[in-house]
Amino acid sequence: MDERRGDGLRYIILCDDELPYYFVGQHPSQEVLFLCEDSRLQKRLIRRGVKCRSGKLGDRSVYQRLKICPTDRIGVFLSAEKARDGALKALLEHTDVIAITLFIKERTRKKRSAVTSHPRVRSVAMEEVVRTGFINELEKTVSAAQVRTLRSIFHDQERVLLLVQYDPDPDAVASALAMRTLLGRNRLSAPIATFGRVTRPENLAMLKLLDIQVNEIGLEALEEYGRIVLLDVQPSHFREELPPVHVIIDHHPETDNAVCMFKDIRPHYGATSTILQEYLHAGDVKITQKLATALLYGIKTDTLLLEREAIESDLRAYSSLYPMANHRQIRRMERPQLPKEDLSVLSKAFHEPSIVDDVIYVHLDDLTREDIVPYIADFCLEVEGIEWAVVSGVYDRKIVVSARNYGTTRSAGELMRAAFSSYGSAGGHRSMAKAVIPLDSLDEEDAGNPQEFLRRRFLEVYRAALKNMPPHRPGVKNGGRGD
Ligand SMILES: [Mn+2]
Question: pTM of the prediction?
Answer without folding.
Answer: 0.58
